[in-house]
Amino acid sequence: MFDTLHHVAIICSDYARSRRFYTEILGLPLIREVYREERDSWKCDLAVGAAQIELFSFPTPPARVSRPEACGLRHLAFKVDDLAAAVRRLEDHGVEVEPIRTDPYTEKLFTFFADPDGLPLELYQS
């Protein structure tokens, strides 16, 4: 019934800051960007392999509950070939990254960091 993940939508508190984070720091290619005047909202689509992230702004979005962990989407995970290189890139841009750990079930390396609004993001080495 489902073929692949099409997109994930993220609402940010500061569109310019988050757009810069996802395009310049994470390096996600910008597919398109539009301003929706009737909603006073920016939206851009970012490529993540065959999937996309839809990055939205709204005038006054409520804060995301993250800790303690709330019911719902927990985090987004990005597959990388070289976890150490990806961590260095993030740290070179001033992004705090948790220590690298090993998944006890798959024995793959992974780590977490956060976007500008505190959304947990994971890097998972393929």
Poorly predicted runs are: none
Instruction: Write down the overall mean pLDDT.
Output: 93
Q: Taking strands numbered 1, 2, ... along the chain, how are they ordered across the largest sheet?
A: 1-4-3-2
Name given to the CATH architecture of the largest domain:
Roll
Helical region count? 2
CATH fold category name of the largest domain: 2,3-Dihydroxybiphenyl 1,2-Dioxygenase, domain 1
- Shape designation: globular
> Distance N terminus to C terminus?
26 Å
List keywords for this structure.
GlyoxalaseI/FosfomycinResist; 2,3-Dihydroxybiphenyl 1,2-Dioxygenase, domain 1; alpha/beta; 126 residues; 8 strands; four-stranded mixed sheet; 2 domains
Notes on the protein architecture:
This protein has 126 residues and is α/β, with parallel strands linked by helices. The protein contains 2 helices and 8 strands; from the N terminus they run βαββββαβββ. It has 2 domains: 1-60, 2,3-Dihydroxybiphenyl 1,2-Dioxygenase, domain 1, CATH 3.10.180; 73-126, 2,3-Dihydroxybiphenyl 1,2-Dioxygenase, domain 1 (Roll), CATH 3.10.180. It has helices spanning 15-25, 83-92, and strands at 7-12, 30-36, 41-48, 51-57, 76-80, 101-102, 109-114, 120-125. The model has no long low-confidence stretch (mean pLDDT 93).
Give the SSE map:
Layout: E1 7-12, H1 15-25, E2 30-36, E3 41-48, E4 51-57, E5 76-80, H2 83-92, E6 101-102, E7 109-114, E8 120-125
Parallel strand pairs: 1-4, 5-8
Antiparallel strand pairs: 2-3, 3-4, 6-7, 7-8
What is the gist of this entry?
This protein has 126 residues and is α/β, with parallel strands linked by helices.
